[in-house]
């Protein structure tokens, strides 16, 4: 990973997701095949497909069907890899507020660090990989590490690759590889975390009112979390 554990990370969400986070003490991990805005999520780059003949070589499955390597990855691996995404930045982002929260009141951003995220997962026994996303041209990219591929392509690495068109996301992600027949989730799974370890501060959306802020504080108080609440700088007037 190119970042230190001290790097600040952010997760932007609406009120309903925030309420679920606090109530369940869990982060949501989405199935990789359920990311609606990126149909290339978890797909192998073109040169890897060509090198390993993933579009032509066939493999039998215990479900009675035969799949090409590419079909196997898209239909089997994508639904077995579950992803939780964060934005790496030293400050809050206007773009992230707009993309993930829009003008919805009571939206929040969790401010954490990579180190805090790692330690928060000590609350469960899932095997979790955390790393930064590499933004690439899927038509041209090739691995530069000779250990990356030996006889077969590295499946996990594919879930840390995204088109360079998404590089504004500056994404850190946590990934779980869990066979579909062990989770059977339609969209994803909840993973227990230590919230006090995870959250350094909660930022209130720039469009939130004082009443919205009090509602957010009330949820934290009801669950016994003395977590600091910060006002977004983008919502503070210089002339107040």
Quick synopsis:
The protein has 9 helices and 13 strands. The chain has helices spanning 15-24, 46-51, 69-80, 94-100, 114-120, 155-158, 180-183, 195-198, 210-222; strands spanning 8-13, 26-31, 58-60, 66-68, 81-88, 108-113, 128-132, 134-136, 161-163, 171-177, 188-192, 201-204, 229-231.
Task: Note the topology.
Layout (H helix, E strand, L loop, with lengths): L7 E6 L1 H10 L1 E6 L14 H6 L6 E3 L5 E3 H12 E8 L5 H7 L7 E6 H7 L7 E5 L1 E3 L18 H4 L2 E3 L7 E7 L2 H4 L4 E5 L2 H4 L2 E4 L5 H13 L6 E3 L9
Parallel strand pairs: 8-9, 12-13
Antiparallel strand pairs: 1-5, 1-6, 2-5, 2-11, 3-4, 5-10, 6-12, 7-10
Tell me about this structure.
With 240 residues, the chain is an alpha+beta fold. It starts with 7 loop residues before the first strand and ends in a 9-residue tail after the last strand. It has one domain (8-235). It has helices at 15-24, 46-51, 69-80, 94-100, 114-120, 155-158, 180-183, 195-198, 210-222, and strands at residues 8-13, 26-31, 58-60, 66-68, 81-88, 108-113, 128-132, 134-136, 161-163, 171-177, 188-192, 201-204, 229-231.
């Amino acid at each position: 990973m190119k970042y230190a554990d001290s790097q600040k990370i952010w997760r932007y969400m609406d009120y309903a997701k925030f309420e679920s986070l606090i109530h369940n003490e869990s982060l949501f991990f989405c199935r990789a095949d359920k990311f609606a805005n990126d149909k290339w999520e978890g797909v192998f780059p073109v040169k890897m497909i060509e090198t390993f003949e993933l579009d032509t070589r066939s493999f039998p499955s215990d479900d009675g069907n035969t799949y090409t390597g590419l079909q196997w990855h898209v239909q089997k691996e994508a639904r077995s890899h579950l992803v939780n995404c964060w934005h790496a930045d030293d400050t809050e982002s206007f773009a992230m507020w707009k993309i993930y929260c829009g003008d919805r009141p009571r939206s929040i951003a969790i401010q954490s660090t990579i180190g805090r995220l790692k330690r928060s997962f000590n609350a469960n026994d899932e095997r979790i990989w955390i790393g930064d996303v590499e933004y690439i041209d899927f038509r041209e990219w090739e691995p530069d590490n000779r250990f990356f591929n030996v006889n077969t392509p590295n499946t996990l690495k594919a879930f840390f690759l995204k088109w360079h068109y998404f590089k504004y996301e500056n994404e850190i992600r946590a990934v779980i590889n869990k066979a579909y027949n062990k989770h059977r989730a339609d969209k994803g799974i909840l993973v227990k975390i230590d919230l006090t370890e995870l959250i350094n501060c909660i930022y209130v959306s720039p469009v939130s009112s004082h009443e919205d802020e009090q509602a957010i504080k009330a949820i934290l108080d009801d669950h016994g979390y003395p977590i600091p609440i910060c006002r977004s700088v983008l919502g503070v007037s210089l002339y107040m």
